[in-house]
Amino acid sequence: MNAIILYLAVVGCIAGWWLSRQRLMSKPWLEVGVPAEVTRGEVPGVPPVKLGLWVFMAVVGALITLFISAYLMRMHMADDWRSIPTPSMLWFNTGLLMLSSFSLYRAELDARIGWREGIAVGLAAGGLSALAFLAGQYLAWQQVMAEGFGVATNPSSSFFYLITAVHGLHLIGGLIVLGRTAYRTARGSPLAQLRLSTELCATYWHFLLLVWFALFALLLHG
Prior knowledge:
single chain, Cyt_c_oxidase-like_su3, mainly alpha, membrane, transmembrane, transmembrane helix, Four Helix Bundle (Hemerythrin (Met), subunit A), Cyt_c_oxidase_su3-like_sf
């Protein structure tokens, strides 16, 4: 319960900060002339797809927080909890996901300056690193099974497979969107569209990396 309250507080602070930057306190009826955004040809406000991504990440964050809370509660609920050995592969996988997130960050920077080749390389590196991460997660499953911890062997192993599978499914969903962005880049789509798509992919990848840090720390704790 404390984890849920903390999460809601963090989300509330982020939402308040975001709203404060949307000129909600401005008084347009007192402004003279044409707004700067219009003179520059920009559309004021946040693109709906970007707002939708943030809402989606908030929902996923709430789900992950529930998993973390349930994990901690179940760990101290009974004496049948047997901690699983932390697969050494998880450390390598963490590095792969960090590399993937950094590659998307570089792609976002290249999109801002309009360097199409840099966008393509960043997207390809990020996607391949993410695929390697998923393959490494499967190998980590194999390591845990080799230690005698199946899906239903112990509550700790059940949680291990559940939370890593949920994180992996969200990463697969991100790879689908990443693939579409790479396809648009190869077809020569307008730079404005590529900037937005690359920014959304990078934002989602950074989010998944933070989620993985939290889950990995949880597994080490358990």
